[in-house]
Design brief:
single chain; nine-stranded mixed beta sheet; alpha/beta; 340 residues; globular; Spore Coat Polysaccharide Biosynthesis Protein SpsA, Chain A
Length: 340
Amino acid sequence: MHIAVIILNWNGRKYLEKFLPTLLKCSNNEAEIIVADNASTDDSVTFIKTHYPEIRIILNAENAGFAQGYNLALKLVKADYYILLNSDIEVTGNWIQPVIELMESDPMIAACQPKIRSYDEPKKFEYAGAAGGFIDKYGYPFCRGRIFLSIEEDHGQYDEPCEVFWATGACMFVKADIFHQVGGFDEDFFAHMEEIDFCWRLKNNGYRIMYCPYSTVFHIGGGTLPKASWRKTYFNFRNNFFLLYKNLPQERLFSVFAVRLFLDGIAAFKFLFQAGFKDFWAVTRAHMSFYRSLGKTRLKRRTLIQGSMKNVFGKKIVFEYYIKGARKFSDLNQEKFYTQ
C-alpha cells in the first residue's frame, strides 16, 4: 500500500521549517512526503531543496487556491491513499496507521480525519475540524467540539470513531481512486468549504466520511488567511451558496434559500455595525458572485447526484447557539440529526 502526504504550500516557509522535522520523524517511513507549491514568492522551494532533498516537490504555475492547487498536484501523485495536510500542522506519533486501519475496515469509507486540536491551546479542539464536521439544514457548518466561536476542551468526550458529515481539508485522509472518481475539489470554490462540498458529493455517491480519535494533530489555523478577514467572509458566504445549490435535494432548495437570504441579510448588517463596511460588502459581493455564476452552477448540479442528508442537523444551528445557548455539541438534540 502506498500512502502519500501532500502539503499544499504558499509562502509557508516558516511553517515548513517548524513542522517538517516532526512530520518526517513521526511518519516512520509509512508515507511519501510531497510538497505542492502554489507559486510561492518566498524561499519555500529553495529551503526544501537545500534542507530536505528527499522530499518531492511539485510546482504549480500559479497560486490557484486550495481546490485547484490540490487537483493539479494530485494528478501527478500515484498512491492508494492521499493525506492532505496543511503546512501549519504538527503531527504526533502513530498518526497515520489508526486512520488507515479504520478506512480499510469498510470499502465505503472514502475520507476520514483525525482529532484536530489547537497548537496554541493544546487542551482545546481547533476551529477547523475539531472532532469532525457537520452542517445544519441551512448549510451552516459546525463541529463536534466547536460551534461557531465556542471551542471545547478535549476531555475525551469524542474518543469513539463515528461517521460525520465532512472531514476537514486541514488534515484529510482520502482514498485516491475515489477522490478522482468524484472529480476532486470544485475549483470554482478557490478556497474554503471545498472539502464540505467534496464530502457531500461523496455521501451523495453512497460513501461514508469518518472521524478517527486514535490519531491527533495540532493545528495553528489562519496561517494563510486570518479568521478576521473580509476575503474569508466573502469566500465562506459565496461558497456556502455554491455548496447548497449543487448538493441539496430538489424538494429542499426553495425553502432553504428563502431562509438563507433572510439570515444572510441579518448577518450582513451585523457585520456593518460590529465589524465595519468591508465585511458587509463581502456578504453583498458573495451573493452577487453566486447569482452571476448561477448558470454554470446549474449545469454542475445537473451532472451530480443529490439526495443524502444523513448526519445533517435538522434544526437551525444559529437559533440553537444564539437563542437557546447551545455551546457544546452535546447541547444539541442528537435525535434531530437526519439518518438518511
